[in-house]
Design brief:
The protein is of the alpha/beta class. It has 20 helices and 14 strands. It holds the Pfam family ILV_EDD_C.
Protein backbone atom coordinates (compact mmCIF):
# COMPACT_ATOMS: atom_id res chain seq x y z
CA UNK A 1 0.00 0.00 0.00
CA UNK A 2 1.29 3.45 -0.93
CA UNK A 3 2.07 5.64 2.07
CA UNK A 4 1.93 9.40 2.30
CA UNK A 5 5.12 11.39 2.58
CA UNK A 6 5.32 13.93 5.46
CA UNK A 7 4.89 16.84 3.04
CA UNK A 8 1.61 15.27 1.85
CA UNK A 9 0.04 15.53 5.30
CA UNK A 10 -2.84 17.96 5.54
CA UNK A 11 -1.20 19.65 8.55
CA UNK A 12 1.86 20.40 6.42
CA UNK A 13 -0.14 23.20 4.73
CA UNK A 14 -0.35 24.96 8.10
CA UNK A 15 3.14 24.19 9.37
CA UNK A 16 5.50 23.29 6.56
CA UNK A 17 5.72 26.27 4.20
CA UNK A 18 8.07 29.25 4.33
CA UNK A 19 5.41 31.94 4.84
CA UNK A 20 4.51 34.34 7.60
CA UNK A 21 1.27 32.42 8.25
CA UNK A 22 3.14 29.15 8.62
CA UNK A 23 5.65 30.87 10.92
CA UNK A 24 2.75 32.16 13.02
CA UNK A 25 1.16 28.67 13.21
CA UNK A 26 4.44 27.20 14.45
CA UNK A 27 4.93 30.01 16.97
CA UNK A 28 1.44 29.54 18.38
CA UNK A 29 2.04 25.80 18.63
CA UNK A 30 5.17 26.54 20.67
CA UNK A 31 2.86 28.64 22.85
CA UNK A 32 0.91 25.43 23.50
CA UNK A 33 4.07 23.86 24.88
CA UNK A 34 4.74 21.63 21.87
CA UNK A 35 8.19 21.57 20.30
CA UNK A 36 8.97 21.05 16.64
CA UNK A 37 9.88 17.44 17.40
CA UNK A 38 6.42 16.85 18.82
CA UNK A 39 4.45 17.58 15.66
CA UNK A 40 6.36 18.61 12.54
CA UNK A 41 6.29 15.89 9.90
CA UNK A 42 3.97 13.79 12.05
CA UNK A 43 0.25 13.09 11.75
CA UNK A 44 -1.69 15.54 13.88
CA UNK A 45 -4.64 13.61 15.26
CA UNK A 46 -7.80 15.35 16.46
CA UNK A 47 -9.52 13.63 19.38
CA UNK A 48 -13.15 14.66 18.97
CA UNK A 49 -14.46 14.21 22.50
CA UNK A 50 -18.14 14.42 23.52
CA UNK A 51 -17.42 14.38 27.27
CA UNK A 52 -19.26 16.69 29.60
CA UNK A 53 -20.47 16.63 33.20
CA UNK A 54 -24.16 16.20 32.32
CA UNK A 55 -23.66 13.18 30.11
CA UNK A 56 -23.38 10.15 32.43
CA UNK A 57 -22.83 7.83 29.46
CA UNK A 58 -19.64 9.73 28.59
CA UNK A 59 -18.41 10.80 32.01
CA UNK A 60 -15.32 8.55 31.67
CA UNK A 61 -14.32 9.89 28.25
CA UNK A 62 -12.13 12.60 29.77
CA UNK A 63 -9.90 9.78 31.07
CA UNK A 64 -10.29 7.69 27.93
CA UNK A 65 -9.03 10.58 25.82
CA UNK A 66 -5.74 10.32 27.71
CA UNK A 67 -5.57 6.64 26.76
CA UNK A 68 -6.10 7.55 23.11
CA UNK A 69 -3.36 10.17 23.35
CA UNK A 70 -1.00 7.56 24.77
CA UNK A 71 -1.59 5.39 21.72
CA UNK A 72 -1.10 8.29 19.30
CA UNK A 73 2.21 9.27 20.92
CA UNK A 74 3.36 5.64 20.88
CA UNK A 75 2.76 5.40 17.15
CA UNK A 76 4.58 8.62 16.34
CA UNK A 77 1.65 11.02 16.00
CA UNK A 78 0.72 14.24 17.76
CA UNK A 79 -2.69 14.16 19.52
CA UNK A 80 -4.81 17.27 20.08
CA UNK A 81 -8.12 17.10 21.93
CA UNK A 82 -10.98 19.11 20.40
CA UNK A 83 -14.14 19.05 22.56
CA UNK A 84 -17.50 19.23 20.81
CA UNK A 85 -21.08 19.38 22.07
CA UNK A 86 -22.23 16.35 24.02
CA UNK A 87 -25.69 14.94 23.35
CA UNK A 88 -26.98 13.55 26.64
CA UNK A 89 -30.12 11.52 26.01
CA UNK A 90 -30.69 11.50 29.77
CA UNK A 91 -31.09 15.26 30.14
CA UNK A 92 -31.44 17.26 26.93
CA UNK A 93 -34.95 18.36 25.98
CA UNK A 94 -37.00 18.02 23.96
CA UNK A 95 -34.65 15.44 22.43
CA UNK A 96 -31.04 15.04 21.37
CA UNK A 97 -32.38 14.22 17.91
CA UNK A 98 -32.94 17.95 17.55
CA UNK A 99 -29.15 18.40 17.85
CA UNK A 100 -27.75 15.35 16.00
CA UNK A 101 -27.20 17.39 12.85
CA UNK A 102 -25.65 20.22 14.87
CA UNK A 103 -23.02 17.85 16.28
CA UNK A 104 -22.42 16.48 12.78
CA UNK A 105 -21.88 20.00 11.48
CA UNK A 106 -19.61 20.91 14.37
CA UNK A 107 -17.52 17.78 13.90
CA UNK A 108 -17.10 18.46 10.19
CA UNK A 109 -16.17 22.10 10.70
CA UNK A 110 -13.80 21.48 13.61
CA UNK A 111 -11.91 19.01 11.44
CA UNK A 112 -11.98 21.24 8.37
CA UNK A 113 -10.82 24.41 10.07
CA UNK A 114 -7.93 23.02 12.15
CA UNK A 115 -4.49 21.68 11.14
CA UNK A 116 -5.36 18.02 11.66
CA UNK A 117 -4.71 14.99 9.50
CA UNK A 118 -7.05 12.45 11.10
CA UNK A 119 -9.68 12.03 13.81
CA UNK A 120 -10.49 9.76 16.71
CA UNK A 121 -14.23 10.07 17.36
CA UNK A 122 -15.33 9.48 20.96
CA UNK A 123 -19.02 8.92 21.69
CA UNK A 124 -21.67 6.31 22.27
CA UNK A 125 -24.87 7.80 23.69
CA UNK A 126 -27.59 7.42 21.06
CA UNK A 127 -27.19 10.32 18.61
CA UNK A 128 -23.46 10.86 19.11
CA UNK A 129 -22.49 7.81 17.04
CA UNK A 130 -24.32 8.79 13.85
CA UNK A 131 -23.51 12.48 14.31
CA UNK A 132 -19.76 11.96 14.69
CA UNK A 133 -19.55 9.54 11.78
CA UNK A 134 -21.72 11.78 9.58
CA UNK A 135 -19.45 14.75 10.25
CA UNK A 136 -16.22 12.82 9.74
CA UNK A 137 -17.61 11.21 6.58
CA UNK A 138 -18.45 14.57 5.06
CA UNK A 139 -14.98 15.87 5.93
CA UNK A 140 -13.44 12.57 4.70
CA UNK A 141 -10.11 12.46 6.49
CA UNK A 142 -8.96 9.21 8.18
CA UNK A 143 -11.17 8.54 11.20
CA UNK A 144 -11.73 5.80 13.76
CA UNK A 145 -14.53 5.49 16.30
CA UNK A 146 -14.07 4.80 20.04
CA UNK A 147 -17.43 3.68 21.49
CA UNK A 148 -17.85 4.68 25.13
CA UNK A 149 -19.11 1.19 26.04
CA UNK A 150 -22.14 -0.08 27.97
CA UNK A 151 -22.52 0.50 31.71
CA UNK A 152 -22.58 -2.27 34.31
CA UNK A 153 -25.82 -4.26 34.73
CA UNK A 154 -28.34 -2.69 37.06
CA UNK A 155 -29.46 -4.37 40.26
CA UNK A 156 -32.50 -4.16 42.50
CA UNK A 157 -32.46 -6.30 45.62
CA UNK A 158 -30.77 -9.12 43.72
CA UNK A 159 -32.73 -8.72 40.46
CA UNK A 160 -30.61 -7.90 37.39
CA UNK A 161 -31.94 -4.81 35.63
CA UNK A 162 -31.58 -3.24 32.22
CA UNK A 163 -31.48 0.55 31.91
CA UNK A 164 -34.52 2.04 30.25
CA UNK A 165 -36.33 -1.24 29.68
CA UNK A 166 -36.84 -2.05 33.36
CA UNK A 167 -37.57 1.58 34.19
CA UNK A 168 -40.58 1.47 31.85
CA UNK A 169 -41.67 -1.87 33.31
CA UNK A 170 -41.42 -0.80 36.95
CA UNK A 171 -43.01 2.57 36.26
CA UNK A 172 -46.00 0.90 34.62
CA UNK A 173 -46.32 -1.43 37.63
CA UNK A 174 -46.06 1.57 39.98
CA UNK A 175 -48.89 3.33 38.13
CA UNK A 176 -50.89 0.13 38.50
CA UNK A 177 -50.31 0.31 42.27
CA UNK A 178 -48.09 -2.77 42.41
CA UNK A 179 -44.75 -1.22 43.50
CA UNK A 180 -44.20 0.66 46.80
CA UNK A 181 -42.14 3.84 47.01
CA UNK A 182 -39.29 2.12 48.85
CA UNK A 183 -38.71 -0.19 45.92
CA UNK A 184 -38.69 2.78 43.55
CA UNK A 185 -36.07 4.52 45.68
CA UNK A 186 -33.83 1.46 45.46
CA UNK A 187 -34.49 1.24 41.72
CA UNK A 188 -33.39 4.87 41.35
CA UNK A 189 -30.03 4.01 42.91
CA UNK A 190 -29.54 0.64 41.23
CA UNK A 191 -30.63 1.03 37.62
CA UNK A 192 -27.52 2.91 36.37
CA UNK A 193 -24.46 1.99 38.42
CA UNK A 194 -21.47 3.10 36.37
CA UNK A 195 -20.32 5.24 33.45
CA UNK A 196 -21.34 4.02 30.04
CA UNK A 197 -24.38 3.97 27.78
CA UNK A 198 -27.48 1.78 28.26
CA UNK A 199 -26.56 -1.89 28.65
CA UNK A 200 -29.64 -3.09 26.82
CA UNK A 201 -29.82 -3.37 23.03
CA UNK A 202 -31.18 0.17 22.90
CA UNK A 203 -30.20 2.84 20.43
CA UNK A 204 -26.71 3.33 21.90
CA UNK A 205 -25.71 -0.34 21.68
CA UNK A 206 -27.42 -0.65 18.31
CA UNK A 207 -25.54 2.28 16.81
CA UNK A 208 -22.12 1.42 18.25
CA UNK A 209 -22.64 -2.11 16.91
CA UNK A 210 -23.59 -0.65 13.54
CA UNK A 211 -20.39 1.45 13.61
CA UNK A 212 -18.39 -1.73 14.22
CA UNK A 213 -20.04 -3.57 11.34
CA UNK A 214 -19.56 -0.55 9.09
CA UNK A 215 -15.84 -0.98 9.75
CA UNK A 216 -15.31 2.25 11.71
CA UNK A 217 -14.16 0.60 14.98
CA UNK A 218 -11.63 -2.03 15.88
CA UNK A 219 -13.19 -5.53 15.86
CA UNK A 220 -15.08 -6.27 19.07
CA UNK A 221 -14.99 -2.68 20.34
CA UNK A 222 -18.73 -2.00 20.62
CA UNK A 223 -19.60 -4.44 23.40
CA UNK A 224 -16.62 -3.82 25.72
CA UNK A 225 -18.03 -2.59 29.06
CA UNK A 226 -17.10 1.02 29.78
CA UNK A 227 -15.40 0.43 33.12
CA UNK A 228 -13.15 -2.50 32.20
CA UNK A 229 -9.42 -2.49 31.54
CA UNK A 230 -10.19 -3.92 28.09
CA UNK A 231 -11.88 -0.62 27.26
CA UNK A 232 -8.75 1.30 28.26
CA UNK A 233 -6.63 -0.95 26.05
CA UNK A 234 -9.03 -0.56 23.13
CA UNK A 235 -8.85 3.24 23.37
CA UNK A 236 -5.03 3.19 23.30
CA UNK A 237 -5.08 0.75 20.37
CA UNK A 238 -7.32 3.15 18.45
CA UNK A 239 -4.77 5.90 19.08
CA UNK A 240 -2.02 3.75 17.62
CA UNK A 241 -4.10 2.62 14.68
CA UNK A 242 -5.23 6.10 13.58
CA UNK A 243 -1.61 7.14 13.03
CA UNK A 244 -1.12 4.27 10.60
CA UNK A 245 -4.44 5.04 8.94
CA UNK A 246 -3.18 8.57 8.32
CA UNK A 247 -0.06 7.37 6.52
CA UNK A 248 -2.23 4.91 4.56
CA UNK A 249 -4.74 7.68 3.72
CA UNK A 250 -7.54 5.30 4.73
CA UNK A 251 -10.60 7.56 4.67
CA UNK A 252 -14.28 6.96 5.51
CA UNK A 253 -15.17 7.10 1.82
CA UNK A 254 -13.05 3.96 1.29
CA UNK A 255 -14.71 2.15 4.20
CA UNK A 256 -18.34 3.25 4.18
CA UNK A 257 -19.46 1.57 0.96
CA UNK A 258 -22.94 0.38 -0.02
CA UNK A 259 -21.90 -3.13 1.05
CA UNK A 260 -20.88 -1.83 4.47
CA UNK A 261 -24.28 -0.20 5.01
CA UNK A 262 -26.16 -3.29 3.89
CA UNK A 263 -24.12 -5.35 6.35
CA UNK A 264 -24.94 -2.85 9.11
CA UNK A 265 -28.65 -3.26 8.35
CA UNK A 266 -28.25 -7.03 8.52
CA UNK A 267 -26.46 -6.84 11.87
CA UNK A 268 -29.02 -4.44 13.38
CA UNK A 269 -31.78 -6.89 12.51
CA UNK A 270 -29.88 -9.89 13.87
CA UNK A 271 -29.33 -7.95 17.10
CA UNK A 272 -33.02 -7.04 17.46
CA UNK A 273 -31.78 -3.47 17.43
CA UNK A 274 -33.45 -0.11 17.91
CA UNK A 275 -35.91 1.37 15.44
CA UNK A 276 -33.82 4.54 15.58
CA UNK A 277 -31.12 2.78 13.55
CA UNK A 278 -33.38 3.09 10.51
CA UNK A 279 -33.25 6.89 10.59
CA UNK A 280 -29.57 7.12 11.49
CA UNK A 281 -28.22 4.60 8.97
CA UNK A 282 -30.20 6.21 6.15
CA UNK A 283 -28.80 9.62 7.10
CA UNK A 284 -25.25 8.28 7.37
CA UNK A 285 -25.50 6.52 4.01
CA UNK A 286 -26.80 9.61 2.27
CA UNK A 287 -23.69 11.52 3.43
CA UNK A 288 -21.66 9.03 1.35
CA UNK A 289 -23.98 9.07 -1.65
CA UNK A 290 -25.24 5.56 -0.82
CA UNK A 291 -28.89 4.89 -1.64
CA UNK A 292 -30.23 3.21 1.51
CA UNK A 293 -34.02 3.15 1.95
CA UNK A 294 -36.74 1.73 4.16
CA UNK A 295 -37.21 -1.03 1.60
CA UNK A 296 -33.69 -2.30 2.23
CA UNK A 297 -34.53 -2.71 5.92
CA UNK A 298 -37.78 -4.53 5.23
CA UNK A 299 -36.25 -6.87 2.64
CA UNK A 300 -33.42 -7.75 5.04
CA UNK A 301 -35.88 -8.24 7.89
CA UNK A 302 -37.59 -11.05 5.99
CA UNK A 303 -34.38 -13.08 5.69
CA UNK A 304 -32.37 -12.18 8.82
CA UNK A 305 -33.18 -13.96 12.11
CA UNK A 306 -32.82 -12.33 15.53
CA UNK A 307 -29.95 -14.15 17.23
CA UNK A 308 -29.08 -11.82 20.13
CA UNK A 309 -31.27 -12.61 23.15
CA UNK A 310 -30.96 -9.11 24.58
CA UNK A 311 -33.42 -6.76 26.25
CA UNK A 312 -35.79 -5.21 25.41
CA UNK A 313 -36.74 -8.01 22.98
CA UNK A 314 -35.00 -10.77 24.95
CA UNK A 315 -33.46 -11.58 28.32
CA UNK A 316 -29.79 -10.67 28.65
CA UNK A 317 -27.64 -7.52 28.81
CA UNK A 318 -24.57 -6.21 27.01
CA UNK A 319 -22.04 -7.60 29.50
CA UNK A 320 -23.52 -11.04 28.88
CA UNK A 321 -23.21 -10.40 25.16
CA UNK A 322 -19.57 -9.34 25.56
CA UNK A 323 -18.70 -12.41 27.58
CA UNK A 324 -20.51 -14.61 25.05
CA UNK A 325 -18.13 -13.37 22.35
CA UNK A 326 -19.61 -10.02 21.41
CA UNK A 327 -20.51 -8.81 17.96
CA UNK A 328 -17.74 -10.71 16.11
CA UNK A 329 -19.13 -13.96 17.55
CA UNK A 330 -22.67 -13.15 16.44
CA UNK A 331 -21.45 -12.25 12.96
CA UNK A 332 -19.85 -15.68 12.54
CA UNK A 333 -23.37 -17.09 12.53
CA UNK A 334 -24.53 -14.97 9.60
CA UNK A 335 -21.41 -14.83 7.39
CA UNK A 336 -23.45 -15.98 4.39
CA UNK A 337 -25.41 -12.72 4.66
CA UNK A 338 -22.36 -10.42 4.84
CA UNK A 339 -19.78 -8.90 2.51
CA UNK A 340 -16.51 -10.15 3.99
CA UNK A 341 -14.02 -8.65 1.52
CA UNK A 342 -14.60 -4.94 2.12
CA UNK A 343 -11.97 -2.91 3.97
CA UNK A 344 -12.28 -1.60 7.54
CA UNK A 345 -10.24 0.75 9.75
CA UNK A 346 -7.86 -2.15 10.33
CA UNK A 347 -6.79 -1.90 6.70
CA UNK A 348 -7.76 -5.53 6.28
CA UNK A 349 -10.93 -7.23 5.02
CA UNK A 350 -13.98 -7.20 7.26
CA UNK A 351 -13.95 -11.00 7.37
CA UNK A 352 -10.49 -11.03 8.97
CA UNK A 353 -11.89 -9.29 12.05
CA UNK A 354 -14.35 -12.10 12.78
CA UNK A 355 -12.33 -15.06 11.50
CA UNK A 356 -11.19 -16.20 14.96
CA UNK A 357 -14.34 -15.26 16.88
CA UNK A 358 -16.27 -17.88 18.83
CA UNK A 359 -19.62 -18.02 20.59
CA UNK A 360 -19.21 -18.94 24.26
CA UNK A 361 -22.89 -18.95 25.27
CA UNK A 362 -25.64 -20.19 22.94
CA UNK A 363 -28.31 -18.78 25.24
CA UNK A 364 -27.13 -15.22 24.68
CA UNK A 365 -26.10 -15.56 21.02
CA UNK A 366 -28.55 -18.02 19.55
CA UNK A 367 -27.85 -20.58 16.84
CA UNK A 368 -29.44 -20.12 13.41
CA UNK A 369 -31.68 -23.13 14.10
CA UNK A 370 -32.80 -21.66 17.45
CA UNK A 371 -33.39 -17.93 16.83
CA UNK A 372 -35.16 -15.53 19.14
CA UNK A 373 -37.24 -14.71 16.06
CA UNK A 374 -37.09 -16.19 12.60
CA UNK A 375 -37.52 -12.72 11.10
CA UNK A 376 -35.57 -9.55 11.85
CA UNK A 377 -36.78 -7.40 14.70
CA UNK A 378 -38.08 -4.52 12.56
CA UNK A 379 -40.84 -4.24 9.99
CA UNK A 380 -41.61 -1.40 7.60
CA UNK A 381 -45.29 -0.60 7.20
CA UNK A 382 -47.04 1.26 4.41
CA UNK A 383 -50.60 2.19 3.61
CA UNK A 384 -52.83 5.22 3.35
CA UNK A 385 -51.85 6.29 6.89
CA UNK A 386 -48.11 6.08 6.15
CA UNK A 387 -47.58 6.54 2.40
CA UNK A 388 -43.84 7.16 2.91
CA UNK A 389 -43.53 4.41 5.50
CA UNK A 390 -43.53 3.70 9.22
CA UNK A 391 -41.65 1.19 11.38
CA UNK A 392 -42.48 -1.19 14.21
CA UNK A 393 -40.21 -3.31 16.41
CA UNK A 394 -42.62 -6.21 16.33
CA UNK A 395 -40.43 -8.62 18.30
CA UNK A 396 -40.94 -6.36 21.33
CA UNK A 397 -44.74 -6.32 21.02
CA UNK A 398 -47.41 -8.70 22.27
CA UNK A 399 -48.08 -11.08 19.35
CA UNK A 400 -51.86 -10.73 19.66
CA UNK A 401 -51.58 -7.10 18.53
CA UNK A 402 -49.60 -7.68 15.34
CA UNK A 403 -52.86 -8.01 13.42
CA UNK A 404 -55.37 -5.64 14.94
CA UNK A 405 -58.16 -3.23 14.06
CA UNK A 406 -59.41 -0.71 16.61
CA UNK A 407 -60.89 2.77 17.02
CA UNK A 408 -58.52 5.72 17.22
CA UNK A 409 -58.12 7.89 20.29
CA UNK A 410 -56.24 10.95 19.05
CA UNK A 411 -53.86 13.25 20.96
CA UNK A 412 -52.51 16.49 19.49
CA UNK A 413 -49.02 16.62 20.93
CA UNK A 414 -47.45 15.31 24.10
CA UNK A 415 -48.96 17.96 26.40
CA UNK A 416 -52.43 16.95 25.25
CA UNK A 417 -51.53 13.30 25.84
CA UNK A 418 -50.31 13.96 29.40
CA UNK A 419 -53.37 16.06 30.18
CA UNK A 420 -56.03 13.60 29.00
CA UNK A 421 -54.64 10.06 29.06
CA UNK A 422 -56.05 9.33 32.52
CA UNK A 423 -59.34 11.18 32.06
CA UNK A 424 -61.99 8.76 33.37
CA UNK A 425 -64.39 9.99 30.69
CA UNK A 426 -62.00 9.26 27.81
CA UNK A 427 -63.43 6.31 25.83
CA UNK A 428 -60.38 4.03 25.81
CA UNK A 429 -60.53 0.24 25.87
CA UNK A 430 -57.77 -2.35 25.41
CA UNK A 431 -58.80 -2.51 21.73
CA UNK A 432 -58.35 1.22 21.14
CA UNK A 433 -55.51 2.51 18.97
CA UNK A 434 -53.73 5.41 20.69
CA UNK A 435 -52.64 8.05 18.15
CA UNK A 436 -50.12 10.81 18.84
CA UNK A 437 -49.48 13.46 16.23
CA UNK A 438 -47.44 16.63 16.24
CA UNK A 439 -44.35 14.72 17.38
CA UNK A 440 -42.42 14.35 14.12
CA UNK A 441 -39.23 16.03 12.89
CA UNK A 442 -40.84 19.47 12.56
CA UNK A 443 -43.79 19.04 14.88
CA UNK A 444 -41.96 17.66 17.92
CA UNK A 445 -39.78 19.55 17.30
CA UNK A 446 -36.92 17.15 16.60
CA UNK A 447 -38.98 13.93 16.67
CA UNK A 448 -38.77 13.22 20.42
CA UNK A 449 -38.98 9.76 21.97
CA UNK A 450 -42.70 9.95 22.72
CA UNK A 451 -43.87 7.01 20.63
CA UNK A 452 -44.30 4.63 23.58
CA UNK A 453 -47.57 6.27 24.56
CA UNK A 454 -48.53 5.51 28.17
CA UNK A 455 -51.37 3.10 28.78
CA UNK A 456 -54.08 4.66 30.99
CA UNK A 457 -53.76 3.89 34.71
CA UNK A 458 -57.15 2.19 34.87
CA UNK A 459 -56.14 -0.26 32.11
CA UNK A 460 -52.77 -0.92 33.77
CA UNK A 461 -54.60 -1.77 36.99
CA UNK A 462 -56.76 -4.18 34.98
CA UNK A 463 -53.63 -5.97 33.77
CA UNK A 464 -53.23 -4.42 30.30
CA UNK A 465 -49.54 -4.04 29.41
CA UNK A 466 -49.60 -3.43 25.64
CA UNK A 467 -51.81 -1.61 23.15
CA UNK A 468 -51.40 -0.55 19.53
CA UNK A 469 -49.95 2.94 19.44
CA UNK A 470 -49.32 5.02 16.31
CA UNK A 471 -47.29 8.22 16.03
CA UNK A 472 -44.91 10.29 13.95
CA UNK A 473 -42.51 10.24 16.94
CA UNK A 474 -39.61 7.94 17.76
CA UNK A 475 -39.25 5.83 20.88
CA UNK A 476 -36.30 4.90 23.03
CA UNK A 477 -34.45 1.83 21.81
CA UNK A 478 -34.87 0.44 25.30
CA UNK A 479 -38.67 0.62 25.01
CA UNK A 480 -41.09 -2.09 23.97
CA UNK A 481 -44.69 -2.57 22.88
CA UNK A 482 -46.84 -2.51 19.74
CA UNK A 483 -45.69 0.98 18.85
CA UNK A 484 -45.87 2.10 15.22
CA UNK A 485 -43.32 4.88 14.80
CA UNK A 486 -41.83 7.35 12.30
CA UNK A 487 -45.11 7.71 10.37
CA UNK A 488 -44.19 9.69 7.25
CA UNK A 489 -44.99 12.25 6.12
CA UNK A 490 -45.54 13.63 9.62
CA UNK A 491 -48.76 15.33 10.63
CA UNK A 492 -47.08 18.76 10.93
CA UNK A 493 -46.55 18.91 7.15
CA UNK A 494 -50.00 17.55 6.31
CA UNK A 495 -49.36 13.82 6.33
CA UNK A 496 -52.45 11.60 6.66
CA UNK A 497 -51.89 11.33 10.42
CA UNK A 498 -53.15 14.93 10.60
CA UNK A 499 -56.54 13.78 9.30
CA UNK A 500 -57.31 11.04 11.84
CA UNK A 501 -60.32 11.64 14.10
CA UNK A 502 -61.46 9.93 17.28
CA UNK A 503 -63.31 6.73 16.46
CA UNK A 504 -61.75 6.17 13.03
CA UNK A 505 -60.79 2.51 12.62
CA UNK A 506 -57.08 1.84 12.14
CA UNK A 507 -55.76 -1.53 10.97
CA UNK A 508 -52.27 -2.80 11.76
CA UNK A 509 -51.16 -5.94 9.92
CA UNK A 510 -47.45 -6.58 10.45
CA UNK A 511 -47.32 -9.73 8.33
CA UNK A 512 -48.86 -7.86 5.39
CA UNK A 513 -46.79 -4.75 6.28
CA UNK A 514 -49.92 -2.58 6.27
CA UNK A 515 -51.03 0.44 8.28
CA UNK A 516 -54.46 1.52 7.10
CA UNK A 517 -56.91 4.24 8.07
CA UNK A 518 -60.34 2.73 7.35
CA UNK A 519 -61.89 5.96 6.10
CA UNK A 520 -63.19 6.50 2.53
CA UNK A 521 -60.91 8.53 0.29
CA UNK A 522 -63.59 11.11 -0.41
CA UNK A 523 -63.89 11.79 3.33
CA UNK A 524 -60.11 12.14 3.64
CA UNK A 525 -60.17 14.57 0.73
CA UNK A 526 -62.77 16.65 2.55
CA UNK A 527 -60.71 16.66 5.76
CA UNK A 528 -57.56 17.54 3.87
CA UNK A 529 -59.21 20.59 2.33
CA UNK A 530 -60.23 21.79 5.80
CA UNK A 531 -56.77 21.21 7.38
CA UNK A 532 -54.59 24.21 8.21
CA UNK A 533 -50.86 23.95 8.96
CA UNK A 534 -49.86 24.41 12.62
CA UNK A 535 -47.73 27.39 13.55
CA UNK A 536 -43.96 27.26 13.38
CA UNK A 537 -42.38 26.42 16.74
CA UNK A 538 -39.10 28.30 16.21
CA UNK A 539 -38.73 31.90 15.11
CA UNK A 540 -34.94 32.29 15.33
CA UNK A 541 -31.60 30.56 15.82
CA UNK A 542 -30.69 26.94 15.25
CA UNK A 543 -34.33 25.92 15.71
CA UNK A 544 -35.38 28.05 12.75
CA UNK A 545 -32.62 26.50 10.66
CA UNK A 546 -33.83 23.06 11.74
CA UNK A 547 -37.45 23.84 10.91
CA UNK A 548 -36.55 25.12 7.44
CA UNK A 549 -34.20 22.34 6.34
CA UNK A 550 -35.06 19.13 8.21
CA UNK A 551 -36.04 16.16 6.06
CA UNK A 552 -38.64 13.52 6.89
CA UNK A 553 -37.99 10.29 8.79
CA UNK A 554 -37.88 8.07 5.71
CA UNK A 555 -35.03 10.26 4.39
CA UNK A 556 -32.99 10.13 7.61
CA UNK A 557 -33.90 13.51 9.15
CA UNK A 558 -30.71 15.13 7.89
CA UNK A 559 -30.66 18.72 6.69
CA UNK A 560 -31.33 18.99 2.97
CA UNK A 561 -28.11 20.97 2.44
CA UNK A 562 -25.90 18.35 4.15
CA UNK A 563 -26.70 15.24 2.13
CA UNK A 564 -24.39 14.00 -0.62
CA UNK A 565 -20.65 14.21 -1.05
CA UNK A 566 -18.30 17.11 -1.74
CA UNK A 567 -19.19 20.76 -1.92
CA UNK A 568 -17.16 22.11 1.03
CA UNK A 569 -13.71 23.44 0.08
CA UNK A 570 -10.54 23.09 2.11
CA UNK A 571 -9.61 26.35 3.86
CA UNK A 572 -6.86 28.59 2.51
CA UNK A 573 -4.05 28.42 5.08
CA UNK A 574 -1.92 31.19 3.57
Amino acid sequence: MDRLAPEQLRSHRWYGTDTVRSFSHRARTRQLGLSAEDHLGKPVVAIINTWNELNPCHIHLRDRAEDVKRGVWQAGGCPVELPVISLSESFQKPTTMLYRNLLAMETEEMLRSHPVDAAVLMGGCDKTTPALIMGASSMDIPAIYVPCGPMMPGNLRGEVLGSGTDVWRYWADRRAGLVPDGVMRDLEEGIARSPGHCMTMGTASTMTSAAEVLGMTLPGAAAIPAVTSAHVRMAAACGRRIVEMTWEDLRPSKILTAEAFHDAVTAVLALGGSTNAVIHLIAMARRLGVDLTLDHFDAASRRVPVLADLRPSGTYLMEDFYLAGGLPALLTRITDLLHLDRVTVTGRPFGDGIADAQVYDDKVIRRRDDPLSEEGGLAVLRGNLAPSGAVIKHVAAEPRLLRHTGPAVVFDGHRDLRRRINDENLPITPDSVLVLRGAGPRGGPGMPEQGMLPIPDRLLKAGVRDMVRVSDARMSGTSYGACVLHVAPESHVGGPLALVQDGDLITLDVEARLLTLEVPEEELTRRRAAWTPPRTVFRRGYGALFDTHIQQADQGCDFDFLTGTGGAPEPDTE
